[in-house]
From TrEMBL:
This is Pirin family protein. Residues 39-144 form the Pirin N-terminal domain. Residues 202-298 form the Pirin C-terminal domain. PANTHER family: PIRIN, PIRIN-RELATED. Belongs to the pirin family. The lineage of its organism: Bacteria, Bacillati, Actinomycetota, Actinomycetes, Micrococcales. It comes from Isoptericola haloaureus. Residues 322-348 are annotated as: Disordered.
Length: 348
């Protein structure tokens, strides 16, 4: 998914020491695209906290009725220095990218794209056909993880994982899509490749029950609540908000009140490198981001019909080209005229 804000802020994310209590991060609404755009609820990055481990971006959307609309329509756009994690609760999304991938993702499956030095991709709700009607609802999360500097220039790649580990314990269900988690005395480990110690999992907790998880004491964790009356370490967490806890806990408790809870657990070792995030780019310096924007802009051209297209030979350039999407690529926003002040993580 692209960050389609017209004036995206440059952010330098750093790491310090965390408070002992549960911190609630309230989501803000961000429109994706034009007048008929879908709206997402973004919890990170924000002023209060930019990273949870290597997790650097969290968009939560739906449930949206896409039975009579275009649904998700995110034209081709570039990325560097990150992995994109597509995870659905309902519906379908078609992914296309510049390394030639075309993959439908459904609930319980993982689409994982490693941008590395540079990749571009599109995401859209697939068109309905007589043999395959489009599901009427779209609901899920789009997440990013930052790549460590030693892997930031790795070759781009795409992976799809349909068979992910799941466990039922005391009526609750845990499905791990990235990293590993101890559940009910056994380890659930995702087959997906990651570049730093982290975990991502969907948790479904029945009403009136609680789920206890054994976790890595070196990890910080966040719980993004999708639905239900949730508590995290005894603190109430409203739907669409994200609760944060610092490293130092070897067990976490997620509770459900009068209604069942569905949530996403994000965790990882605190990321010790400063990173600059702007639009769809994650770099180490302002110059990294400016160079990526310049490279993407050099691949684009104005078409006679007024739309944006690709220059000749774009497929062989840094971000390649995406074929199969019905529309032109996105142009990058204008960089700020001055370097913005670094955004600091709160003390941990």
């Amino acid at each position: 998914m692209s960050n389609l804000e017209l004036r995206p802020a440059e952010q330098v994310c750093t790491v310090g020491d965390a408070p002992a209590d549960v911190e609630i991060l309230t989501a803000r609404e961000v429109p994706l695209g034009g007048p008929r755009a879908m709206t997402v609820r973004r919890t990170i990055p924000q002023r209060r906290r930019s990273l949870i481990g290597a997790w650097c971006f969290s968009d939560h959307y739906g449930p949206d009725d896409v039975s009579s609309s275009a649904g998700m329509q995110v034209p081709p756009h570039p990325h560097i220095g990150l992995q994109t994690v597509s995870w659905l609760f309902a519906g379908e999304i078609m992914h296309r990218d510049s390394v030639g991938s075309q993959q439908l993702v459904r609930p319980g499956e993982l689409n994982l794209m490693t941008a590395g030095h540079g990749i571009s991709h599109s995401e859209e709700s697939p068109a309905s056909t007589p043999d395959h009607p489009r599901p009427p609802t779209l609901h899920g999360v789009q997440l990013w993880t930052v790549l460590p500097s030693g892997d930031a220039a790795t070759a781009p790649q795409f992976d799809h994982h349909a068979d992910l580990p799941v466990a039922d314990v005391d009526g609750a269900r845990v499905r791990v899509f990235l990293g590993a988690l101890q559940v009910g005395g056994r380890e659930l480990r995702s087959p997906a490749r990651t570049y730093s110690p982290l975990v991502g999992a969907q948790l479904d907790v029945p009403a009136g029950t609680r789920l206890e998880l054994d976790v890595d004491v070196a990890f910080e964790h966040g719980l993004l609540v999708d639905a239900g009356e949730a508590t995290f370490e005894g603190t109430s967490v409203p739907p669409a908000d994200l609760a944060y806890v610092a490293p130092g806990r070897d067990r976490l408790v997620v509770g459900a009140g009068a209604t069942p809870v569905r949530a996403v657990l994000l965790g990882g070792e605190p990321f010790t490198e400063d990173v600059v995030m702007w639009w769809n780019f994650v770099g180490r310096t302002h110059e990294d981001v400016a160079a990526a924007r310049a490279d993407w802009t050099a691949q684009l051209a104005d078409r006679p019909d007024g739309e944006t297209g690709y220059v000749d030979g774009a497929a062989g350039r840094r971000f390649g080209r995406v074929d199969g999407y019905d529309g032109g690529p996105l142009r990058a926003p204008t960089l700020p005229d001055v370097r913005l002040k670094p955004r600091r993580q709160p003390p941990r």
